[in-house]
């Protein structure tokens, strides 16, 4: 029987992607949709300006949207997906956890908290057990797991494949799609025939979230990886798909061939949304490209290419679909992991 | 009296920009236009598909195009600007030098030759005296000076401003406009809603040309700078203006403030096409941007911004107009330098 | 058992789409791929620069490409799909028909010939019987059917739905995607931040093909519809999907409501590639839009919207995926029709 | 001595263009800048997010912005340029006229009022005398003149050149740039790789404003032109420049040659911002194009091309820079006309 799920912030860009992914999902059944108070009481069709490239599922369209409040969500909902703006998330998500809901959240609030697992299942599924610590400390019946920022998710799986070589220094430049900023985040006048070398707060997310994700959890405490990461973030005129240039310096020698092999063999999981292979490594030097490769693995694969030895260690490019693998799909995959690990 | 000049490869993208810049130039007078044999004998209007954003100068339009051959160019032409494809340049440029013409070339052939000065006037005007060595070795009556690749020109002036701090390691990611590949270089199907993390040969140009430009000329020999440079190059859907993310590690401590001051104070030259200031340093973290800032200093300024201390030294962004400062304007400026230094 | 098919011009943009559509098609099996002489003898992977947004089918990738010559195609191939440049098509397609092959061609040569059926199955399937006349006149064992130009296919089904009202005058402005010109047809420098109000020969195709498609076939001769059509064609910076503004003046009164009903009820066919509904009529005034709606009906539906009464009759917008419904899918659908009507 | 002018709504997209045009204007001197209450008291640099492609004029940057209220504007200001949102314009513009200010407004409110002159100086400068009627009726010391909508301005001058042939029916399809909607009007996710066949209220503006502009003023009353106009409006991914496809049916025969001649000879005015020629007629069938031709005549020219005889009268394309000729420049030109006609 499918788990009944709710979506917080269901009308936004990530909320729409969540609905697109959850509607056909055999393990989950959409049972609650919340949005701002202004939308409460409307049908989802009325409340949302649907802009995903497949029609609104008919039953979702007729669902009545409620306010984002634990009291408005049916008790038989067992799992909550949250794609709220971080300020709203900070305010309302803890209330859902207190009320007993398990929350898989894409919102950035709390991601770096010591007792909140920040998880990419193929990378650090074992961090999920931090939830025991979390429940002890916070006294929640529910639980909160976060997925990282879209630009972090894009490059961390490739680094995870290289940890055996001793990660030391990482430089990363991002070329990010406009959908990462939400539907109204980037105006057309800002970005057509242009690029913007700044995304507020983004560099810090890449630098800190990556070290938490690749850290070690000893059952009680989580230590962050001690590599150093320097990020430079750019917005470019693409719709979907974040492309990243990466340089990695490692303690041990690392050839391009060894890196390609490590990435190709890096395992995916036996979860519905985890693609096989997880990392698709291209031979062609001009790949991956956002429009060509963002839908690999139904948007859940990581694409890598251009592996070569640079003057300073390994150099390569990687790509992921920022609103699927980087946001909505990441939350759904964390939901699948929560289910498998018995938290639901 | 204006110097009579010729343009080799006058119908291409850089050739058109050269004409746009040379036509109103008080020191130069267009006296010869060459193109492929197929165009020889036609008027320039017939031979070129003019696509620059100002009308063809009327007198240029009616000029008869000749083949790219020293015998076809009038003897009273004193300076040749070349924007030939590098394979053609390698074949025909030496003939012009032998025939006594001074050539300011944007073509990539020969840039790394020991006796060919690769010059950005504000950075290494003193390298021009390598022409004495060149004439000795090659027995040319003419001379050949090259300007670097467009992506090299964008970041080297900012590095030049920082040499006192002891340049050691440089990482650079480029976001390059489509005009850098010429009119037919990038098809629309390749680049709309996309980015391409590969430009053939480009990374090597950034890595090697920068070290030659920042090298020392002792009057006899040119030694290259011993910094190391690692480059990653991307094509994005912008028309003009290359944007670059740079990280610099230096021997001495380098704060963002000290770097900004060094860039702001880096001198321009008293040449017509050298802008004042040479480097425009933005305070706003989201600048420079290609569409907003590529025309600073009539397209000849370097824009920099986002200066900050990263985990590994200084981090910043820079931008230049790739077909003006990065190509046609670079050649014209070298022409002005040749004139000032008495080579014409 | 699946019909064995060949693809002429298999490496081009439409050829790649044909392979993408034919590979999973249960009624057809790809048995021959042809291209220019330069590609003959190579595997398809070597010969094509694959740029469709799904991977090359593995068995197709390893197929050896032959020259475009009837002698090079196995005899047990029963149906040929052609997406050759029209000049090449004019030269080689008749040879295939003489050699006994039935050809479903997307190439523009011969479309207006009196004895060549120009067919959109949902619009004028009965024109297919013109093949009897064709065989009589040309003495072919094979046969040739054409689908119209992509911009013609976009608006003709909507007109077909309105024929009962007496079509008299039609104005149509097109906003066409770059893929309509093939992979290298439109350079990025031509179209980024731009639009081009001219596509050579396109206006004439809309004006004449539409009248042939809506004409009557009496079993012996085809008379063209006597409506008048005036077209104005524009290229805009979209990848796929032609959008068209249409005004129709009819002999009888035609309200927007009646037109919407006629379009909604216009029947599709019981062929695999004919979508249900054929015409998707939007209520939202700002639809259809290329990126949102081009994949309706797997790219085979026609989308319409903005129906309103203008000062001069009915006004509306329509949209179709130009390389699926407008080209490769159109040829495949004609192949299905040929099969159903017993020509294969 | 320069006329002291104020700009209402100075921080918006058109407000910034107004400042860019007025700052170097020898007849006008910027003496007041107004914006929303939230901006009042700030310097212009603080209040505006400057996004025009030339730096903020230094003296403007330091000017203190006031609320949009006649009491906040110095009495010695003689002319007001208004680029307010229409709802705000409707509310506050009359107050400025009552307080004695002459207002040249780009806002759409009131454009179709019987006693408000809607003026393109080269087309209907004589309508300006409607101001006498206006003052009689409204008892204003000041006066109000409007310029039309950007998409109207683009095609009306070409129609004005053809009035002698007896305009009867006009069809027009527009391909409009995103800047027409203001800085945040069109999000990047809406328009990249897309087109939107709907701009709220725009079709009606083309259909009605054009008839008012080409109407006759007999000294007491203005009668509208009795041609019929049907418009279909599209937003496309270009930054600046509206392109329009036009069909005109006339009472008298009209050849493409006669139309081209009439357009070429249509006179400009002896006003600073009126370009010579007013209408630039291209021979090349693929022109005008937005990126290539929008800056003709410093953005104040009308470009036309593609003139041909269609099945229903004349067909052609036209183009104008929508934020210069179509908005800010239109208001400035009306200001110059007011000055010349002695209203200031």
Automatic annotation (TrEMBL), chains A, B, C, D:
Record's keyword annotation contains NADP: yes
UniProt GO MF annotations: aspartate-semialdehyde dehydrogenase activity; NAD binding; NADP binding; protein dimerization activity
Gene Ontology BP annotations: methionine biosynthetic process; threonine biosynthetic process
Keywords recorded for this protein, A-Z: NADP, Oxidoreductase
Domain (Semialdehyde dehydrogenase NAD-binding): residue spans on this chain: 4-131
SUPFAM superfamilies (UniProt xref): Glyceraldehyde-3-phosphate dehydrogenase-like, C-terminal domain, NAD(P)-binding Rossmann-fold domains
Enzyme class: oxidoreductase
Enzyme Commission number: 1.2.1.11
Record: active site: 150, 242
Family under the similarity heading: Belongs to the aspartate-semialdehyde dehydrogenase family.
Protein name per its UniProtKB record: Aspartate-semialdehyde dehydrogenase
């Amino acid at each position: 029987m499918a788990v009944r799920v709710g979506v917080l912030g269901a009308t936004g860009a990530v909320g729409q992607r969540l609905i697109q992914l959850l509607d056909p999902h055999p393990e989950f059944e959409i049972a609650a949709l919340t949005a701002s108070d202004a939308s409460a009481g409307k049908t989802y069709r009325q409340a949302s300006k649907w802009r995903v490239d497949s029609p609104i599922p008919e039953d979702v369209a007729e669902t009545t949207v409620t306010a984002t409040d634990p009291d408005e969500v049916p008790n038989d909902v067992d799992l909550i997906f949250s794609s709220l703006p971080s300020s709203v998330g900070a305010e309302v998500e803890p209330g859902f956890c207190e009320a007993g809901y398990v929350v898989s959240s894409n919102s950035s609030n709390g991601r770096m908290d010591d007792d909140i697992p920040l998880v990419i299942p193929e990378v650090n599924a074992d961090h999920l057990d931090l939830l025991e610590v979390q429940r002890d400390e916070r006294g929640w019946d529910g639980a909160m797991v976060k997925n990282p920022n879209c630009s972090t998710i894009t490059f961390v799986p490739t680094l995870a494949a290289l940890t055996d070589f001793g990660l030391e220094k990482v430089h990363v430049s991002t070329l990010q799609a406009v959908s990462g900023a939400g539907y109204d985040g980037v105006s057309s006048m800002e970005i057509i025939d242009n690029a913007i070398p700044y995304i507020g707060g983004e560099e810090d997310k890449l630098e800190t979230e990556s070290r938490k994700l690749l850290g070690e959890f000893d059952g009680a405490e989580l230590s962050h990886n001690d590599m150093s990461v320097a990020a430079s973030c750019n917005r470019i005129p693409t719709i979907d798909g974040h492309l990243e240039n990466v340089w990695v310096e490692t303690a041990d020698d690392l050839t391009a061939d060894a890196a390609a092999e490590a990435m190709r063999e890096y395992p995916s999981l036996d979860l519905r949304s985890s693609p096989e292979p997880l990392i698709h490594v291209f031979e062609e030097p001009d790949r991956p490209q956002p429009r060509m490769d963002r839908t690999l693995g139904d948007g859940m694969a990581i694409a890598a290419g251009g592996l070569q030895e640079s003057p300073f260690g390994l150099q390569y490019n990687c790509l992921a679909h920022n609103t699927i693998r980087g946001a909505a799909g990441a939350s759904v995959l964390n939901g699948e992991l929560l289910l498998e690990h018995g938290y639901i």
